[in-house]
Amino acid sequence: MHIVLVTGLSGSGKSVALNQLEDAGYYCVDNLPANLLPNLISTLSVQSHSRVAVSIDARSSADFTKLPDQVAAFEQQGLSVHTLFLTANDTALIQRFSETRRRHPLSRAGGEHDVSLQDAITSERERLLPLLQISAVIDTSTLKARQLQQWIKELLDLRKTGLTVLFESFGFKHGIPMDADFVFDVRCLPNPYYDVSLRPQTGLDAPVQQFLQNQPDTDRMIEDIEHFLTRWLSRFEDDNRSYLTIGIGCTGGQHRSVYIAHTLAKRFIEKGLRDKAQVLVRHRTLTPT
């Protein structure tokens, strides 16, 4: 099992880090009391979870002096453990709390009466001090969320899972799908609907496919869409996108769009895109069989 412990100061980006790890396939637990960590790891190990990320911070009011010994015990059991400590300077933290207008978790550390934001930050630094010696420290004072995500990827050598690319056929007369990131209109191609024998069939049937393959513009359209996506998909992946939906529309969503969406998905699978991303195809207008 590979375990990542995410800790550090409130407002330093722990949620961004945990979301990044979740996207990379980790089973994530937020705000776990430190004394419950051994039981959690034991339970998840029995359930065959291979990658686990746990956020432990000052909200749990735990005795953090014991956590280094827990980490050492995990390593003696053969488990791989990385601890990330996210921090930022006081100016950055105060600005972030001011922008979000959220209360610091330790603002009531003095009992019934609130303490100042500055005092809460100072108290949190002192409370988390024992974790610095076992952690990789990332100062997020000047980092944007995307930069922090990239640093975590590089630090932990996270396996790049890539995009989930969905090719979705639809009919314009039924409306453009709301989830489409790109929409390609293929209504300019000859329509099999006007052939009485092809009308009841779909773009998944061989006679319709043969009809469209005999039209020179069909392959040109497919090649142009394929070239565009091949060029730009990696940029969306670099932008930390998890999903990209490519809408292919014709008039009714039964013939042309179905064939082209099916063909594009097949081509991207064949060229090896599946090694980096999942390729899916969905026909919005066709009745499931």
From TrEMBL:
Listed name of the protein: Nucleotide-binding protein
Gene3D superfamilies: P-loop containing nucleotide triphosphate hydrolases (3.40.50.300)
Xref: InterPro entries: P-loop_NTPase, RapZ-like, RapZ-like_N, RapZ_C
Pfam families to which the protein is assigned, alphabetical: PapZ_C, RapZ-like_N
PANTHER family noted in UniProt: RNASE ADAPTER PROTEIN RAPZ
Record has ATP-binding as a keyword: yes
Top-level taxon of origin: Bacteria
Domain RapZ C-terminal: 164-286
Keywords, alphabetical: ATP-binding, GTP-binding, Nucleotide-binding
Boundaries of every RapZ-like N-terminal domain copy: 1-156
Keyword ATP-binding listed: yes
Amino-acid positions noted as binding GTP in the UniProt annotation, renumbered to this chain: 57-60
GO MF annotation, one: ATP binding
Chain residues that bind ATP: 8-15
